[in-house]
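Checklist before submission:
- one chain only
- standard amino acids only
- sequence pasted in full

Submission:
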Amino acid sequence: MTARFATRRAADLAIEHLVQDMGIERTDIFVSADGADASSGETADGADVESGHPGVPAEKDPALGEAIIVSIDLANERDRDGVVGRLKDLGATSVETE
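Returned file contents:
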């Protein structure tokens, strides 16, 4: 199963929900940019917008480009519909199950 996210932050949040709430092993989840270049996603968000540390300037030019891809190797296909729904709820712009 493969889901696309516009921001790295949304992808990270989805991964945490899959692991903590749905019991999917972290070793069964893979993350990459949708393309050859490094990417923070298609839209700046979270740490790409502000550093979160007083006195530390925000990143002014994050490596925006392609979507963030989250691939899940489901051990139990019975969980597929629930995982698809959760990914969409958490901001996936698309989910492919094949």
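Reviewer check: Residues 2-96 form a domain with the Alpha-Beta Plaits fold (CATH 3.30.70).
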